[in-house]
Amino acid sequence: MRWERLFADLEAQALDDAALERDALVEELVDEEWASVGSRDVLWGEVVIEVLGAGRIDGVVTQSLADLLVVESAGCEDVVVSRAAVVGWRGGRGRAPALTPVTGRLGWAHVWRALRDEGSEARVARVDGAHVVGQVGAVIADAVLLEGPSGRTWLPWSAIATVRSG
Question: Which of 3, 30, 66, 149 has a 20 to 30 A CA-CA distance from 100?
Fold first, then answer.
């Protein structure tokens, strides 16, 4: 009878050790998987984003590119958000679609040229909280020239928090 208890205790201890080892391995695999995921992958779907200089934006991320996001806001207006200006978010679900060779190259220059070609006025929130409104005059490698009521203003990509057309 004592031998049966001893063997039962040893078997239970072995099972506990195996379960601890399995749990540690699962945790390690989960950590490894999360380490390979970037914010571009998870900042997708319905979100509330806090943006430096622009405040809170509620909406649905419909495009997640390397340097920017396109968010359809509650007012059904698309807002282009600089990833560099995002200071936090809540929500998001699923994973963003993988970037194709074409979408992987899209960025600020594409946004500005599209606004210029449409003849749309751009409303920019800068990361310092200032706002600039104007028509796209020129697009260079890392900045845009807006021509508006307050004159001609060059904006480097690093100063832009959000862009709305209208």
Answer: 30
Q: Write out the residue range of the structural domain in which residue 17 sits.
A: 1-36
Residues 29 and 45 grouped into a single domain: no
pLDDT in tens, 2-31: 777 766 776 777 777 777 777 777 777 766
Length of the chain: 166
Is 119 found in the same domain as 95?
Answer: yes
Burial 74-99 (b: 16+ CB within 10 A, else e): eeeeebbbbeebbeebeebeeebeee
Residue 108's nearest CA partner among 98, 99, 116 is 116
Specify whether 137 is located in the same domain as 71. Answer: yes
pTM of the model: 0.77
